[in-house]
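Ticket reopened. Same input as before:
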Amino acid sequence: MPDYSSLTLPSVLPLSRPQSRFSMPLKLPCGRTIRVNELKNREYLNIVKYCENGDFDGFLQTIRTKLIPDFNDLNVVEKACALVAYRIMFLGDELTLINAEHQQVRSTASSILEKLEEVDVDRVDFELDGFKAVIGNIKDFTTDDFDIYSCVESIEYQNATVTGDDVISAIDVIPVAVSNALGHRILEVYKYYNNVEIVSADPRKKMPSIKISLVDTSFSIFIMSIFTSSLELMFDTVFIFSQHFQNVDYFDLSPLDSKVLENILRREHAEAKNESSTQSQHSNPLTPSL
Amino acid sequence: MSKLTDFISLIDEEVDTSVNVCVPSNLKDYSFEQITVTQQKRLIKGTLSGVKGNIMLLKTFNDIIMANCETDVDFLITDRNAILVQLRIASLGTRVTDDNGNTTSLNEDMIGAYLKEPPITDGRVTYKGIEVQLKTPTLKTDQKFFNLFEDKEYDNAGDVVNDLYAAEAAKFIKSVTIGDTSLASIPPKEAVKLIDNLPLALNVKIVDFVKQAKEYDAMFLKATNKSDIVLSAKLFNAPD
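Engineering reply: fixed in the latest deploy. New output:
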């Protein structure tokens, strides 16, 4: 690790921040705007730990409770878009993914976002034996408790209509032939959720496309891969901050802020090193030039 | 009244979701409610977790039969497949997917024939002065044996299979008599221990009796193309 002991923190940098949470708007493909909280290293460290442990539930818990308060209200496509957009906002756009052939594929989160925005399902009407239902977007991409009926927005029989959270209870009392046919229709509508291309094939480089499913574990693996970083590298950064930025709470900074500070520090260190080598050259004219 | 309550009341009034099912052990018809989506989800969860999941799946099927029958009757375990298959046919028809993924049909003729010939429900086996009275267990007894597995953790699948094998035989024991000593109403845990300690020759005779009941039960899950239909959540999901 480089020796930063002789350096001081540049005075222009924001050393302390107000405690209030900074949030910003995020526009979703459906046109809806939600507010998201700035990602701090405190949460990011947790996210990286969850990703390293393959714990998608823990990851989502942090997203829901700390970072995207409206996350639960979004459907599966909006959730996917919100996560990728959030990644761009606070961790940058560049990505390196591994495809099924274990090849490294360089891409950008914004190109993935564009592809995800195309995956949207128009409402579909269903009718059988006097029962009418409207199929909307699937709400969740978790697999264990995945409920295909969660995308049913309303169910109607004669003059009685049920919407919202009551729909699941209503489906439970309809004839099994109707609920079964509705389930088949939903699976048919959402077939392509299982085959979403997020990175196009590159024939010149003989790279196949990368496809994921929004409703199985491949989605959680994909999302965690775009959020993760090296835990070891993060701990090194925490150490550098504790040594050189005593007035700064590393965990209260965003990953991008801390990266900027770290880069400035590294640059100053490089300049100081250059300067000292120039001085030693001047003091000893016999030293060969680099 | 909430919109959901209105909806449920309307369905209750206008849509008949009950099914008449003939039960082989007493050849009577009983009215059952169809399997609901929530019950289907419980069955799907059961299929997700290995050998223990299969035990829980049967327990869930027993629960469903007991919950959906409009009369409070403790059916025999040899009634289980007959009831489930008739419920399936009444709500979704005979078309099913077999074990190999082929679309076929449940054999209604065979089901009708077997319903008329229920298996023997009582038996007696002896070996060197030990007499065991056997009786096909009811669904409630079956549940008590399944409860033995519910909270038990297994390190390997072999242990579950051993326990399951012992429990399957033990649940058929009505009483054991050795000389003047007689044991009856044996609690499930003790019955499993007893099976482990009975002479092998006697166990073989008990297993033969159990086999007859199992074979009878399995006949209800034969398709017209002679293939076996697996008792799973998929049975209540009609093919496209």
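Chain B has a mean pLDDT of 88. Chain B is about 50% helix and 15% strand. Please confirm and we'll close it.
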